[in-house]
Design goal:
Elements lengths: L1 E4 L6 E4 L3 H6 L1 H14 L1 E4 L6 H8 L20 E4 L13 H8 L14 E10 L7 E5 H7 L2 H7 L3 E4 L1 H6 L8 H6 L3 E4 L1 E3 L6 E3 L5 E4 L4 H15 L5 E4 L6 E5 L3 E5 L9 E8 L6 H4 L10
Parallel strand pairs: 2-3
Antiparallel strand pairs: 1-2, 3-13, 4-15, 5-13, 5-15, 6-12, 6-14, 7-8, 7-11, 9-10
The structure holds N-oxalylglycine and manganese (II) ion (MN).
N-oxalylglycine binds next to strand 5, strand 14 and strand 15.
Length: about 300
C-alpha cells in the first residue's frame, strides 16, 4: 500500500489497496484503518463501486447508519445525493434534493445532529458534472492546534448544541419536515474530540451547532462563526475534484467539509454510506453530562 499526500498536512490517496481488499482482508483493513486515523481523508481512485461493495467496505469500520427520514435513501444504508428526481429528470433548483445540495455547501461534519454521531463517511462518485461539484475538506485537528492555548483551554470541555433544523433553516426554514422535527431533537457534544489511537484532539463544530452552554446565544453564534472561519481558510483546505470511480472516506471527528456548486443543467449523483461512532472511537468523552436543571 502506498500513501500519496493530497492536502495541506492531511489527506492521502491510497494506492495498491482497494475497497474490495479492505472488505475481504483483515491486513488490508488494518493498514487502511491506520491511515484513516492518521490522515483523516482517504482517496481511492478507479474503483468499480456498487452499493454492495461500498457497504462491504464501510461496515469493516463499524456499524452503519441508516439514512434519516425525509432523505433520498431513507431507512437504508445509502444517502443518495443526486439532482435526478424520481421521474428520471433533473430536479428544479427549488426542489428538496437541490436544497439539500445547497445545505451541504455549508461547512459541516456529518451527523453531529444525530443521537449517535458519525465516525466516518464514505462517498462514491457515480455521475460527475463537467464543471464544479467538488468537495472541500479542512482538518479540524490542525485547526485545534492553531488555536491559542487559552482558547483551547476554554473549549476543551465546552458543550455545544447541534440540530439539523439549525443548518437547514439557514437555507430555507420550510426545508425541515414535521417528521424531521419529531425525530431529530437537538443534541449536545463537547467542542473537542480526542482521537483515542493517537491522542490528537480536534475541534468538533459544524453548521448544525448553534449554542454553547453558559454563553449567550449571540456570543455563541459569533464564536462558532469565528472558529469555522479560522478552520476553513482556503490555504488550510483540500479541494477534491471528482473523477468517476473516485471514493473518498473522511473522519467526521477530525474534519469539516462542504460541497461546491455546479451548473443546474448538469447531473451529479453521489452515494454516501456513514459509519456510526462508538466509545472505541472516543465517543464516550465527547458526550457531556446531562445539563443542570434550570433554577425555578
Ligand atoms: C456528504 C456531503 C458534499 C458533496 O456527502 O456528506 O456533504 O460534495 N457531500 O456532495
Ligand atoms: Mn456532508
Amino acid at each position: 500500500m502506498d500513501l500519496v499526500p493530497l492536502g495541506p498536512g492531511f489527506g492521502v490517496e491510497v494506492r495498491g489497496v482497494g475497497l474490495i481488499d479492505v472488505a475481504s482482508s483483515a491486513d488490508a483493513y488494518a493498514a487502511v484503518r491506520a491511515a484513516f486515523e492518521e490522515h483523516s481523508v482517504l482517496l481511492f481512485r478507479n474503483q468499480s463501486v456498487t452499493d454492495d461493495i461500498q457497504t462491504a467496505f464501510s461496515r469493516a469500520f463499524g456499524p452503519l447508519e441508516l439514512t434519516k427520514v425525509s432523505s433520498v435513501g431513507s431507512g437504508t444504508f445509502y444517502a443518495r445525493l443526486t439532482n435526478i428526481g424520481p421521474d428520471g429528470a433533473l430536479v428544479p433548483p427549488t426542489h428538496r434534493q437541490a436544497l439539500t445540495a445547497r445545505a451541504n455547501q455549508l461547512w459541516h461534519t456529518d451527523s453531529s445532529f444525530k443521537q449517535t454521531p458519525a465516525l466516518a463517511s464514505v462517498l462514491s462518485a457515480r455521475i460527475v458534472p463537467g464543471h464544479g461539484g467538488e468537495t472541500q475538506f479542512t482538518s479540524t485537528r490542525q485547526a485545534w492546534d492553531r488555536l491559542p492555548p487559552a482558547l483551547q483551554e476554554r473549549l476543551r470541555d465546552a458543550v455545544a448544541t447541534h440540530s439539523y433544523a439549525n443548518s437547514r433553516s439557514q437555507i430555507d426554514p420550510r426545508m425541515v419536515t414535521p417528521e424531521e422535527h419529531a425525530t431529530l431533537p437537538p443534541v449536545r457534544w463537547r467542542m473537542s474530540w480526542r482521537n483515542p489511537v493517537n491522542g490528537r484532539r480536534a475541534l468538533y463544530i459544524a453548521s448544525h451547532a448553534y449554542a454553547i452552554d453558559g454563553m449567550g446565544d449571540n456570543e455563541a453564534k459569533a464564536l462558532l462563526a469565528r472558529l469555522t472561519e479560522e478552520a476553513t481558510q482556503p490555504q488550510h483546505t483540500y479541494i477534491h475534484r471528482w473523477l468517476p470511480g473516485d471514493v473518498v472516506m473522511w473522519d467526521n471527528r477530525a474534519t469539516m467539509h462542504r460541497g461546491r456548486p455546479w451548473p443546474d443543467a448538469e447531473t451529479r449523483s453521489m452515494v454516501r454510506t456513514t459509519i456510526s461512532a462508538t466509545d472505541a472511537d472516543g465517543l464516550g468523552e465527547v458526550r457531556p453530562p446531562a445539563p443542570l436543571p434550570r433554577a425555578a
